[in-house]
Hints:
The protein is an alpha+beta fold. The protein has 2 domains: about 1-155 and about 340-350, no CATH class; about 160-315, Four Helix Bundle (Hemerythrin (Met), subunit A) (Up-down Bundle). It has 9 helices and 9 strands. Strands 1, 2, 3, 5, 6, 7 and 8 form a 7-stranded antiparallel beta sheet that branches. Strands 4-9 form a two-stranded antiparallel sheet.
Amino acid sequence: MIARVTIPIPFSILIAADETLPIFSVERMGYKISHFPPLRDTNLVSQVEPSILKLNEKDAILCNLIVIDFQKEEFDRTISSDPSKMFQFEPPLEFINQVLNDFLIRLRHLTNAPQIHYINLHYTQWQIKYLKNDGSEFQEESGKLRGRGTKTFEIKHVPLPSDIWSDIFELPQDFFSQYWIDLLLDGLDELPEIGPSIVLTHTALEVFIAKILNQLATAEKISPEFWEWINNRRYPDQLPTIEEKYDTLLQNLTGHTLKEDTKLWSVFQNLRTARNTFVHEGIAKISLKSQAPPLTRDEARNLVILSNMIPYKIREWLPKSVQWELNKNYNTKSFSTWPMDFQRPGKVVNSAGFPIPPGSVLH
């Protein structure tokens, strides 16, 4: 029996139209796994494409589908009535994800293509279809799966009700944003990419605390020479660390330390460790132990979102002269819906000489 997995990818693979790419098969975890050359589904094309495409002076096409066959004697296709078991089927989704990313990381390594990243099938579109060994489909049978899949959509929109529109032009002519706020937004925008979002968020907190301490030192009339001596030593290891800034220096200038909020202090420490391990080891972790697991995308997202709360907690301890103005709580509730036709087949094409696998058309 065959479990054919079809996965749209968020980048295009350019293949010469007349090139015949062989199917590669391996044995792994009791499955025969076959990697087909990438395909193209015209329904997944979301941007204007060039009218002429060449690869090594040959006509070429842009492919956007990965197709992988998992084959074994029999798959359990029983339909479970338990909603919690919706994603428990054969082959396991985590194993499919691992096989997919093993391919992608090799492709990225050999092509030096920065647009290729790990794909998490829990957050993207995929389809699995069970087929007979000859590639034909099973007839509908009560209590038996013939396939399963997901459709995911991401809509990024900026709400603009009338009060925000008016307030845009109420801001002063010399308005400029807080640089650390921009960096926090950049870190959020990089999600779900783990490393860049962690580094940008950590940088935002570094910029924030340096600016706030300088403002506090001025407000508290700290001697400029003394403050210069603290922050500009001859050797880098004599300078206050970011941890000391959020603890000792902050406490001396406000009477408060981030340690007072044990949750946010833990978040700060984890962010700092994740940033350091990513910068020095290439993997973001919240433990320095060599066997510690890397952060997952969900863990990184939670860490970045919670880190965004740190400046606003510290704002509560600042004198009015140092506090920045907060945005209004605008009412920006929105709702979107659109018609979907799941029965409309996509037109799938491939490079010449390669037979399109039966059942590979998305429905």
